[in-house]
């Protein structure tokens, strides 16, 4: 991938020159933040995370989905250094939930974090999660593993989560069955697709070009204009 940060490998590295990117996009987008990494990785400095989130609060015509496995760190920062962003409805805070041992504790961390929109990415779902608490959760995505060596997804595991979402009135999105050939297995569950999204307000109006240029000029990381 020419000129892409991953062209230099997959070791963790910061790319401060990318911080202002959302301010350059005049058309509203859904942005999967750090889609190939984790914003709350232990080696990402708190100040860098704060800089990323400040840009998200300014470029508020986009919708941001922040997903992590480092749920305790996200919770702690949302209570402290990121408290300024916790009530923004265009920033969705989520955790990965793959199993009972590692995934379900993250749900509790997320539920105890101050956030306007909280979501669960139950993908890949690797076992039956049993009954778990969904109060304070605003969206649940479920999906199976895909690609070579994908572990199978059992229908009962999916319907258990779906039915709990129904009872708790939480929007449910079924992404895929997965498998080696996910295009063949599709994403229908009991003959229908599930595409529910969180019920949140419409995104804000896009800034004028002049205001966006001024905002870009003010993007900083640790006191340095990027």
UniProtKB/TrEMBL annotation:
Domain of life: Bacteria
Organism per entry: Cystobacter fuscus (strain ATCC 25194 / DSM 2262 / NBRC 100088 / M29)
One Pfam family in the UniProt entry: DUF5131
Name this protein carries in UniProt: Bacteriophage protein gp37
């Amino acid at each position: 991938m020419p000129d892409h940060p991953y062209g230099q490998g997959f070791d963790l590295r910061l790319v401060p020159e990318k911080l202002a990117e959302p301010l350059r996009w005049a058309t509203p987008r859904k942005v999967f933040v750090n889609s190939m990494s984790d914003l709350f990785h232990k080696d990402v400095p708190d100040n860098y995370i704060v800089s990323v989130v400040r840009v998200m609060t300014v470029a508020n015509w986009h919708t941001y989905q922040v997903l992590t496995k480092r749920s305790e760190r996200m919770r702690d920062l949302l209570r402290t250094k990121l408290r300024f962003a916790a009530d923004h409805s265009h920033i969705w805070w989520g955790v990965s939930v793959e199993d009972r041992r590692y995934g379900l504790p993250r749900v509790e961390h997320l539920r105890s974090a101050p956030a306007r929109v909280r979501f669960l990415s139950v993908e890949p779902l690797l076992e039956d999660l049993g009954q778990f608490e969904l109060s304070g959760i605003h969206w649940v995505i479920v999906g199976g593993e895909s690609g070579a060596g994908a572990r199978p997804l059992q229908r009962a595991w999916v319907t258990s989560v779906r039915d709990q979402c129904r009872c708790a009135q939480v929007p449910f999105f079924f992404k895929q069955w997965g498998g080696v050939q996910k295009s063949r297995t599709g994403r229908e569950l009991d003959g229908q697709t599930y595409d529910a999204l969180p019920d949140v307000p419409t995104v804000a109006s896009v800034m004028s070009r002049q205001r966006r240029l001024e905002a870009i000029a003010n993007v900083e990381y640790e006191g340095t204009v990027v």
